[in-house]
Task: structure prediction
Amino acid sequence: MRLKRLVTRVIQQWPRKLAAAFLAFVMWLFVSTTETGTAQRSMLVPITTLGDTADQVVIGQPPFAEVTVSGPTNRVDRLRPESFEAVIDLTGLSGDFQAPVVVTAPQGVVLERVNPNEVLGILERVTTKQVPVQVVHLGSAPADMRLRSLAEPDVVSVRGRAPRLERVARVIAAVDASDGEIVVTPYAADAFGRPVEEVTVAPNAIAVATVAEGVLVRREVPLQLERPEAERLVEVTLDQATVIVAGPPTMVAAIDRLAARVDLPELGLPGGRYTLSVTVVTPPGIVAFGTPSATAVYDAAAADDTPARD
Result:
């Protein structure tokens, strides 16, 4: 009876049971094939150097190498660029060099190819020189003012390859055209002010203090005589036609001419020729240099009651 019931259970709904067994077999076959199959894969691996010193720089080295490997699919799928090491050994080399790219791959995979498999480059020496800092103001200073700036430090170190370093004439710190203190990042420049790339500036932060100062300029302007009114004054002439003045640029530029007033004595003068001082009338903020003079001629007629000259 027990055997009969067992046979009955086995053959009961046998199509569904057969389909389930077939599906389980297919899944086992897929997993088994995936775990034991092989795959190929390529990835970019960073290239590092060995043997170069702190005062050397490598020119022509590509940043990455394309590494192709093969192996079990489950292992290849888990690979990452950091799973590999791509190295160029530059020990004892200088100038032009040709060195292989040596790649170390994880165990269990096969290294198929490396591109590039060698590097042609130049190993150049890096040097340092001291360069002065020049402050450049962006924009214009306020009218009649000039900006005076002080950089701290005013001399910095520039480091780079010799051909690049030879082009560096100064380090520029650019600031706004206003007074105050600001910290800026400088850049290396050639004699024409153009930036020089592939060099470093130390320190990379410069404090610039800027102060706005008034500007004074000089100019020669014509004098215009204000003829005085006085008894018996026959003629008066200036001994010079111009005068030097100084003041803010906009005010000096606006001057067309200045009035010249002859300083007459309060008492009348006997007839004759006299040299008298002149006052130059200037607007506020303008200063005239020197004391112009004038020649005055008085009529001698009706001078009996005038004091005699000393």
Summary: Residues 303-310 have pLDDT under 50 and may be disordered.
